[in-house]
Known about the structure:
- By secondary structure, this protein is α+β, with helices and mostly antiparallel strands.
- The chain has one domain: Alpha-Beta Plaits.
- Helix content is 41%, strand content 28%.
- It has helices spanning 12-20, 26-35, 61-73, 88-99, and strands at 3-10, 39-45, 52-57, 77-85.
- It has a four-stranded antiparallel beta sheet with strand order 2-3-1-4.
- The longest helix is centred in the middle third of the chain and has 13 residues, at 61-73.
Amino acid sequence: MPTFMIQASYSTAALASLTKKPQDRTEVIRKSVEKLGGRLTGVWLSFGDYDTVVIFEVPDHESAAALALAVGAGGTCSKVKTTVLLSASEGVSAMKKAGSSSYKPVSK
């Protein structure tokens, strides 16, 4: 199954709610991923541009987009970014395909 990462920033209202009533959102996220036919790898809180990182596997890109859309539509996240992740072996395979793709860069 393809692996994805969602990075999300909470809205100020969501941060205020979480500060007043701290909660672990892992099981809520797990249920959503499993309902889409996937498996949750993990949920982390993070510093920087995003407040949380979720790594998960789902059967297809549409399922990953569905989760990202559901998170964004929920109204408690101000930013949601979804990234497709490749395993090391998938990356090596992509490198091999790139080398044999016959792509020609722009010439001067």
